[in-house]
Amino acid sequence: MKNCGYGDLKSLIAGRSSHRKFTQESIPADIIEKLVDCARMAPSGHNLQPWKFVAVSHGGMIARIAEAVEKGLQAALDSLPADRAKKLDDYRFLVTHFKEAPLVFVVLIEESLYLTAELSRDYGVPQPP
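Above: the chain sequence. Below: its structure as tokens.
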């Protein structure tokens, strides 16, 4: 694998952008697989990679996920003092704008996967039941 130099990294970072409007063009399966392959390389303790990725392209399911996120946000807002809730509510769009995307990745993690035999052995962490 080719090492990335400073110039390559700087170009990559400088060229990134945030998209908040999406086409409804479907994403080919091979592209989805490549995206997951890149995402799985994110660092994790002892390289356990305790996550699973679910690619959701069904518009109805994406809408249901957005609705669940919206309810969670509202619950958070309801628990905050009014001034802090107002500040957070100003960013509501950033939390739910994915509902228009043709593809959403849901990342699932089971907390107990971090507590493997290796971690238990190395750090004396008891195994979960």
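The chain has a mean pLDDT of 84.
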